[in-house]
Protein backbone atom coordinates (compact mmCIF):
# COMPACT_ATOMS: atom_id res chain seq x y z
CA UNK A 1 0.00 0.00 0.00
CA UNK A 2 1.26 3.41 -0.96
CA UNK A 3 1.11 5.03 2.44
CA UNK A 4 3.38 2.35 3.83
CA UNK A 5 6.14 3.12 1.36
CA UNK A 6 9.08 4.91 2.90
CA UNK A 7 10.69 7.62 0.88
CA UNK A 8 14.16 6.26 1.35
CA UNK A 9 15.45 2.76 1.71
CA UNK A 10 15.88 2.09 5.44
CA UNK A 11 19.46 2.74 6.45
CA UNK A 12 20.38 -0.88 7.16
CA UNK A 13 19.44 -1.85 3.60
CA UNK A 14 21.24 1.01 1.90
CA UNK A 15 24.52 0.21 0.28
CA UNK A 16 27.47 1.42 2.32
CA UNK A 17 29.92 3.15 -0.01
CA UNK A 18 32.62 4.17 2.44
CA UNK A 19 33.21 4.25 6.18
CA UNK A 20 35.57 6.86 7.60
CA UNK A 21 36.57 7.67 11.15
CA UNK A 22 33.67 10.01 11.93
CA UNK A 23 31.26 9.48 9.03
CA UNK A 24 29.70 6.83 6.81
CA UNK A 25 28.65 7.36 3.20
CA UNK A 26 25.65 5.45 1.84
CA UNK A 27 24.23 5.22 -1.63
CA UNK A 28 21.79 8.08 -2.18
CA UNK A 29 18.17 7.99 -3.41
CA UNK A 30 19.15 9.09 -6.93
CA UNK A 31 22.21 8.53 -9.11
CA UNK A 32 24.90 11.10 -8.35
CA UNK A 33 23.79 11.50 -4.74
CA UNK A 34 25.04 10.04 -1.47
CA UNK A 35 23.90 10.12 2.12
CA UNK A 36 26.50 11.36 4.60
CA UNK A 37 25.94 9.94 8.11
CA UNK A 38 27.66 11.56 11.14
CA UNK A 39 28.84 9.10 13.80
CA UNK A 40 29.64 9.91 17.43
CA UNK A 41 33.21 8.63 17.07
CA UNK A 42 36.01 11.04 17.88
CA UNK A 43 39.55 10.23 16.82
CA UNK A 44 42.85 12.04 16.95
CA UNK A 45 46.45 11.37 15.96
CA UNK A 46 45.29 9.24 13.04
CA UNK A 47 42.87 7.24 15.19
CA UNK A 48 45.49 6.25 17.76
CA UNK A 49 43.14 7.98 20.20
CA UNK A 50 39.48 7.02 19.88
CA UNK A 51 36.32 7.58 21.91
CA UNK A 52 32.59 7.58 21.28
CA UNK A 53 31.13 10.89 22.45
CA UNK A 54 27.34 10.80 22.72
CA UNK A 55 25.72 13.50 20.64
CA UNK A 56 28.78 14.72 18.71
CA UNK A 57 27.48 13.44 15.36
CA UNK A 58 24.12 15.15 15.78
CA UNK A 59 25.78 18.48 16.55
CA UNK A 60 28.29 18.24 13.69
CA UNK A 61 25.48 17.37 11.26
CA UNK A 62 23.63 20.55 12.27
CA UNK A 63 26.68 22.83 12.36
CA UNK A 64 28.06 21.55 9.05
CA UNK A 65 24.60 21.86 7.45
CA UNK A 66 24.41 25.50 8.57
CA UNK A 67 27.87 26.34 7.19
CA UNK A 68 27.42 24.51 3.86
CA UNK A 69 23.93 25.96 3.29
CA UNK A 70 25.33 29.45 3.87
CA UNK A 71 28.23 28.76 1.49
CA UNK A 72 25.76 27.58 -1.17
CA UNK A 73 23.69 30.73 -0.57
CA UNK A 74 26.66 33.08 -1.16
CA UNK A 75 27.68 31.21 -4.31
CA UNK A 76 30.53 29.08 -2.98
CA UNK A 77 29.84 25.69 -4.57
CA UNK A 78 29.61 22.71 -2.19
CA UNK A 79 28.47 19.09 -2.32
CA UNK A 80 25.65 19.80 0.17
CA UNK A 81 22.02 19.40 -0.92
CA UNK A 82 20.00 19.22 2.31
CA UNK A 83 19.86 17.70 5.76
CA UNK A 84 17.65 14.61 5.97
CA UNK A 85 17.48 13.89 9.70
CA UNK A 86 19.40 14.12 12.99
CA UNK A 87 22.50 12.40 11.66
CA UNK A 88 22.27 12.45 7.88
CA UNK A 89 22.50 14.80 4.96
CA UNK A 90 21.94 14.36 1.24
CA UNK A 91 25.02 15.32 -0.75
CA UNK A 92 26.20 15.22 -4.34
CA UNK A 93 28.64 12.48 -5.17
CA UNK A 94 32.04 13.98 -5.97
CA UNK A 95 35.44 12.65 -6.86
CA UNK A 96 37.37 13.55 -3.73
CA UNK A 97 40.71 15.24 -4.36
CA UNK A 98 43.06 13.47 -1.92
CA UNK A 99 44.19 16.65 -0.15
CA UNK A 100 43.39 18.17 3.22
CA UNK A 101 43.43 21.91 2.67
CA UNK A 102 44.29 23.73 5.90
CA UNK A 103 43.84 27.50 6.20
CA UNK A 104 45.48 29.22 9.17
CA UNK A 105 44.91 32.71 10.52
CA UNK A 106 46.57 32.31 13.92
CA UNK A 107 49.45 30.02 14.93
CA UNK A 108 48.32 26.83 16.68
CA UNK A 109 48.68 23.07 16.56
CA UNK A 110 51.20 21.59 14.16
CA UNK A 111 52.26 24.97 12.71
CA UNK A 112 53.08 26.38 16.15
CA UNK A 113 55.12 23.25 16.86
CA UNK A 114 56.87 23.11 13.47
CA UNK A 115 57.97 26.76 13.44
CA UNK A 116 58.34 27.31 17.19
CA UNK A 117 55.57 29.93 17.34
CA UNK A 118 53.53 30.63 20.43
CA UNK A 119 49.94 29.42 20.03
CA UNK A 120 47.65 32.40 19.57
CA UNK A 121 50.15 34.51 17.57
CA UNK A 122 48.34 36.27 14.70
CA UNK A 123 49.95 35.26 11.39
CA UNK A 124 51.17 38.00 8.99
CA UNK A 125 48.54 36.75 6.53
CA UNK A 126 46.34 33.71 6.07
CA UNK A 127 48.40 30.67 5.12
CA UNK A 128 47.14 27.74 3.04
CA UNK A 129 48.76 24.32 3.48
CA UNK A 130 48.15 21.00 1.75
CA UNK A 131 48.32 17.55 3.31
CA UNK A 132 48.12 14.32 1.31
CA UNK A 133 45.11 12.30 2.56
CA UNK A 134 46.72 8.98 3.39
CA UNK A 135 46.20 7.35 6.77
CA UNK A 136 49.03 4.86 6.30
CA UNK A 137 51.42 7.83 5.95
CA UNK A 138 49.75 10.00 8.66
CA UNK A 139 48.61 12.65 6.14
CA UNK A 140 52.02 14.18 5.31
CA UNK A 141 52.30 17.85 4.36
CA UNK A 142 52.96 18.29 0.63
CA UNK A 143 53.70 21.21 -1.68
CA UNK A 144 52.20 22.16 -5.05
CA UNK A 145 55.20 20.44 -6.65
CA UNK A 146 54.19 17.10 -5.14
CA UNK A 147 50.52 17.64 -5.99
CA UNK A 148 51.17 18.28 -9.68
CA UNK A 149 54.02 15.76 -10.04
CA UNK A 150 51.91 12.93 -8.65
CA UNK A 151 48.79 14.09 -10.50
CA UNK A 152 46.51 14.62 -7.46
CA UNK A 153 45.45 17.95 -8.99
CA UNK A 154 46.68 20.10 -11.88
CA UNK A 155 47.88 23.72 -11.55
CA UNK A 156 44.47 25.15 -12.61
CA UNK A 157 42.74 22.97 -10.02
CA UNK A 158 45.19 24.07 -7.33
CA UNK A 159 44.34 27.70 -8.18
CA UNK A 160 40.62 26.90 -7.94
CA UNK A 161 41.11 25.10 -4.61
CA UNK A 162 43.07 28.04 -3.17
CA UNK A 163 40.45 30.53 -4.35
CA UNK A 164 37.73 28.41 -2.70
CA UNK A 165 39.78 28.13 0.50
CA UNK A 166 40.18 31.92 0.71
CA UNK A 167 36.45 32.51 0.16
CA UNK A 168 35.53 29.90 2.77
CA UNK A 169 38.04 31.41 5.23
CA UNK A 170 36.69 34.95 4.73
CA UNK A 171 33.12 33.79 5.13
CA UNK A 172 33.79 31.61 8.19
CA UNK A 173 35.97 34.24 9.90
CA UNK A 174 33.12 36.76 9.70
CA UNK A 175 30.43 34.26 10.62
CA UNK A 176 32.27 33.12 13.75
CA UNK A 177 33.43 36.61 14.76
CA UNK A 178 29.78 37.66 14.79
CA UNK A 179 29.24 34.86 17.31
CA UNK A 180 32.15 35.94 19.52
CA UNK A 181 34.41 33.21 18.18
CA UNK A 182 37.91 33.55 16.68
CA UNK A 183 38.58 31.23 13.72
CA UNK A 184 42.16 30.11 14.36
CA UNK A 185 42.38 27.58 11.51
CA UNK A 186 40.32 24.95 9.72
CA UNK A 187 40.58 22.03 7.33
CA UNK A 188 38.46 21.57 4.24
CA UNK A 189 38.26 19.02 1.45
CA UNK A 190 37.29 19.44 -2.16
CA UNK A 191 35.95 17.25 -4.92
CA UNK A 192 35.27 17.27 -8.64
CA UNK A 193 31.76 17.35 -10.10
CA UNK A 194 31.01 16.94 -13.78
CA UNK A 195 28.15 18.79 -15.42
CA UNK A 196 28.17 17.57 -18.99
CA UNK A 197 31.65 18.31 -20.30
CA UNK A 198 32.30 20.87 -17.59
CA UNK A 199 34.17 19.94 -14.44
CA UNK A 200 34.09 22.09 -11.35
CA UNK A 201 35.59 21.86 -7.94
CA UNK A 202 33.31 22.10 -4.92
CA UNK A 203 33.79 22.11 -1.15
CA UNK A 204 33.08 18.62 0.22
CA UNK A 205 33.19 16.56 3.45
CA UNK A 206 32.25 18.58 6.56
CA UNK A 207 33.13 21.83 8.29
CA UNK A 208 32.47 21.54 12.01
CA UNK A 209 34.25 21.97 15.35
CA UNK A 210 35.94 18.63 14.51
CA UNK A 211 37.79 20.31 11.64
CA UNK A 212 38.23 23.89 12.90
CA UNK A 213 40.00 25.58 15.80
CA UNK A 214 37.52 27.93 17.43
CA UNK A 215 38.43 30.11 20.41
CA UNK A 216 36.11 32.32 22.42
CA UNK A 217 37.07 35.91 21.52
CA UNK A 218 37.21 37.11 25.14
CA UNK A 219 38.41 34.14 27.18
CA UNK A 220 40.25 32.19 24.43
CA UNK A 221 38.40 29.07 25.67
CA UNK A 222 38.61 26.27 23.14
CA UNK A 223 35.28 25.36 21.48
CA UNK A 224 36.60 22.60 19.19
CA UNK A 225 38.11 19.11 18.96
CA UNK A 226 41.29 20.20 20.75
CA UNK A 227 39.19 19.58 23.91
CA UNK A 228 39.33 15.88 22.96
CA UNK A 229 42.88 15.87 21.52
CA UNK A 230 44.18 17.51 24.71
CA UNK A 231 41.95 15.62 27.22
CA UNK A 232 40.21 18.78 28.41
CA UNK A 233 36.67 17.33 28.58
CA UNK A 234 33.45 19.22 27.86
CA UNK A 235 33.46 18.58 24.11
CA UNK A 236 29.72 18.21 23.60
CA UNK A 237 29.05 21.27 25.76
CA UNK A 238 31.52 23.27 23.64
CA UNK A 239 29.99 22.14 20.32
CA UNK A 240 26.54 22.91 21.72
CA UNK A 241 27.76 26.41 22.62
CA UNK A 242 28.99 26.92 19.03
CA UNK A 243 25.60 25.79 17.69
CA UNK A 244 23.74 28.04 20.15
CA UNK A 245 25.82 31.09 19.27
CA UNK A 246 25.31 30.54 15.54
CA UNK A 247 21.58 30.54 16.25
CA UNK A 248 21.21 26.93 15.11
CA UNK A 249 19.76 25.95 18.48
CA UNK A 250 17.20 28.23 20.09
CA UNK A 251 17.76 29.14 23.75
CA UNK A 252 15.59 26.26 24.91
CA UNK A 253 16.15 23.80 22.06
CA UNK A 254 18.34 20.81 22.62
CA UNK A 255 19.90 19.36 19.45
CA UNK A 256 20.12 16.05 21.20
CA UNK A 257 16.47 15.81 22.27
CA UNK A 258 14.92 12.69 20.86
CA UNK A 259 18.36 11.49 19.85
CA UNK A 260 21.11 10.09 22.00
CA UNK A 261 20.93 11.33 25.56
CA UNK A 262 23.81 13.44 26.84
CA UNK A 263 25.30 11.39 29.65
CA UNK A 264 27.08 13.53 32.22
CA UNK A 265 30.24 11.89 33.56
P1 LIG B 1 47.03 20.90 12.76
O1 LIG B 1 47.46 22.17 13.47
O2 LIG B 1 46.99 19.71 13.66
O3 LIG B 1 47.81 20.67 11.51
O4 LIG B 1 45.50 21.13 12.31
C1 LIG B 1 45.11 22.21 11.51
C2 LIG B 1 43.60 22.25 11.38
O5 LIG B 1 43.13 21.13 10.65
C3 LIG B 1 42.84 22.21 12.71
O6 LIG B 1 41.74 23.10 12.62
C4 LIG B 1 42.37 20.81 12.84
C5 LIG B 1 42.21 20.36 11.42
N1 LIG B 1 42.55 18.96 11.22
C6 LIG B 1 41.61 18.08 10.73
O7 LIG B 1 40.46 18.46 10.49
N2 LIG B 1 41.96 16.78 10.51
C7 LIG B 1 43.21 16.32 10.74
O8 LIG B 1 43.48 15.14 10.51
C8 LIG B 1 44.19 17.24 11.25
C9 LIG B 1 45.60 16.77 11.54
C10 LIG B 1 43.82 18.54 11.46
Structure commentary:
It is a single chain. This protein is α+β, with helices and mostly antiparallel strands and 265 residues long. It has 2 domains: 3-95 and 235-245, Phosphorylase Kinase, domain 1, CATH 3.30.200; 96-216, 2-Layer Sandwich (D-amino Acid Aminotransferase, Chain A, domain 1), CATH 3.30.470.20. Helix content is 26%, strand content 31%. The protein is built from 6 helices and 14 strands. It has helices at 56-73, 109-115, 144-149, 155-177, 226-229, 235-245, and strands at 16-19, 23-27, 33-38, 41-44, 49-52, 80-83, 88-92, 95-96, 99-106, 122-132, 141-142, 181-195, 198-204, 212-216. The strands form 3 sheets. Strands 8, 9, 10, 11, 12, 13 and 14 form a 7-stranded antiparallel sheet that branches. The chain has a 5-stranded antiparallel sheet with strand order 1-2-3-7-6, with helices on one face. β10 and β11 (141-142) form a beta hairpin. It starts with 15 loop residues before the first strand and ends in a 20-residue tail after the last helix. The model has no long low-confidence stretch (mean pLDDT 93). Bound molecules: thymidine-5'-phosphate. Thymidine-5'-phosphate is lined by residues 102, 108-111, 139, 185-187, 211-213.
Write the layout of secondary structure elements.
Layout: E1 16-19, E2 23-27, E3 33-38, E4 41-44, E5 49-52, H1 56-73, E6 80-83, E7 88-92, E8 95-96, E9 99-106, H2 109-115, E10 122-132, E11 141-142, H3 144-149, H4 155-177, E12 181-195, E13 198-204, E14 212-216, H5 226-229, H6 235-245
Antiparallel strand pairs: 1-2, 2-3, 3-7, 4-5, 6-7, 8-12, 9-10, 9-12, 10-11, 12-13, 12-14
Helix pairs in contact: 1-6
This protein binds thymidine-5'-phosphate.
Thymidine-5'-phosphate (TMP) is lined by residues 102, 108-111, 139, 185-187, 211-213.
Protein name: Phosphoribosylaminoimidazole-succinocarboxamide synthase
Catalytic activity: 5-amino-1-(5-phospho-D-ribosyl)imidazole-4-carboxylate + L-aspartate + ATP = (2S)-2-[5-amino-1-(5-phospho-beta-D-ribosyl)imidazole-4-carboxamido]succinate + ADP + phosphate + 2 H(+)
Keywords: ATP-binding, Ligase, Nucleotide-binding, Purine biosynthesis
Amino acid sequence: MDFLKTRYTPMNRRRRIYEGKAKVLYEGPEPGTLIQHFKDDATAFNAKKHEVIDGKGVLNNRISEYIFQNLNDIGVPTHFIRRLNMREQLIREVEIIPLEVVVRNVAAGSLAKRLGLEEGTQLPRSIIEFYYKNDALDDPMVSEEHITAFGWANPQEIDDIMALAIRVNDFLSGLFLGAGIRLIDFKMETGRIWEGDMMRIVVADEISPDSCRLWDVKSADKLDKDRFRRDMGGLVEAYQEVARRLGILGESENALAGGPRLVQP
